[in-house]
Prior knowledge:
The protein contains 16 helices and 21 strands. With 484 residues, the chain is of the alpha/beta class. The chain folds into three domains: 30-158, Rossmann fold (3-Layer(aba) Sandwich); 171-414, pyruvate-formate lyase- activating enzyme (Alpha-Beta Horseshoe), CATH 3.80.30; 421-479, CATH 2.40.50. A six-stranded parallel beta sheet has the order 4-3-5-6-7-8, with helices on both faces. It has a five-stranded mixed barrel with strand order 17-18-19-21-20. Helix 13 (348-361) links the parallel strand 15 and strand 16. The N and C termini lie close together (10 Å). Bound molecules: iron/sulfur cluster. The site of iron/sulfur cluster (SF4) has 10 residues, from helix 7. Iron/sulfur cluster is lined by residues 186, 188-190, 193, 195-196, 230-231, 273.
Amino acid sequence: MFLLPLCEKNGIPYVSSHLTQKPAPLSGKKVFFETLGCQMNKSDSELMLGLLNQQGFELAESERDADLLVINTCQIRGSAEDKAYSYLGRWKKLKRSRPGLKIAMTGCVSQQTKDGVFNRAPYVDIVIGTQNIHQLPDLVNQAFAGEHNLLAVDRQKERNTFDYVSDITPRRESDILAWVSIIEGCDYFCTYCVVPYTRGRQISREPESILREVNELASMGFKEVTLLGQTVDAYGKDFKDREVKNKDYGLAELLYELNEIPQLERIRFMTSHPLDLSDKIIDAVASLPKVMEYIHIPMQSGDNTILERMRRGYTREEYFALVDKLYERIPGVSISGDFIVGFPGETEEQFQRSLEAIERAQMVLVNVAAYSPRKQTPAGIWEERGEGVIPDDVKQDRLQRLNAEVKRIAESKNTQLLGQTVEVLVEGKSKRNENRLTGRTRNNKVVNFDSPFSEDELLGRCVNVKVLETTAWSLLGEHVDNSP
Ligand code: SF4
């Protein structure tokens, strides 16, 4: 007999349930997907795969095996855009040898470049914007019927609805973890960022639609959902201007409702913005057993002048006050963030403040990026004019120094866990050693561990693991429960 595993929050146990059914595999024609960029793009790719699945497509193992190649693009940095076109260049050669092959470009580069993609890459059959993914099956049918250069980039959400994705059943990569988009776009217009142009203004998905999806996921055996949004804790702000039932509904209210779904074990959300992470949300994280103690909250720079030039809307002092509040109110919370180095005009002294900020905020994981000018943004225009341009070698040097500092702090924090027992949601076999299992702690640390039980016995369960070794990015341990 299987025992129901017990998960704990603040020492209080709660019961998890067994896995039930799994999603059906794809079948028929073959599609190969390449996804660049953020979790939102990964989630969109899962939605598009779901749509193609309904059309009878199977997932190809490689590009050479596919009838349809799709690249879901990112435009956050020049390198990501270059990478997208480099894939297309490779696919052009494949298409030469197999003229029946179809190529589609989706995502932020498509949204921004529109039919300009066909000028640069005329062999592309389909270009789809960030809010037109529901049109993919129709356009794919047209492409296979012999039409070329098909374009769909009009903004669905300007119709004031998120419905264009609500009814799609995604084809998810994992059987345990699921991304769920709850808000899209951004109203902040930071001076370096293209998201408000590529994803448009903020729009929140209606709670009924999210609750329906997460209930379905839980009944299918999914154990963890990550609520996604470029500014996820701004969820619901736009309800005030829309025809919705409860205009005061926000992320906190949603977390309370999701926490009641019996089969679900863990809820995460990302990415937070310091101006939207309210006391109500912090209280929800602190008190709800299924909401994990992990907050990803980009700071971007530790220097007030740079923060102002980035138009982030807060000072370093305000950011630190927020972080202090998180550590005080949410026991065991881990904080991660994003930083940009080499922003136009950043001096060595200003960069040093970012280095200090990582130590001050005790961040365990930081995505560090060298500033990359984006056309159409104010900072991109400063660079074009040659104002405050930081040479590439200086950017790379700062990137390395900041990464080294993050590694040092992460190593030191993880060392403190040696000998402790942590709760891990089992996600499957370790990629590096298939005799080991892997999962993550409540505060998002990767744990690889040995267990007398099999993957089948533990998949999707919360188990207790004693930490025996640590590195900056993962923990190694042994399963200490006497039963699965
Ligand atoms: S908050 Fe700033 S960095 Fe984040 S998506 Fe919006 S504009 Fe971009």
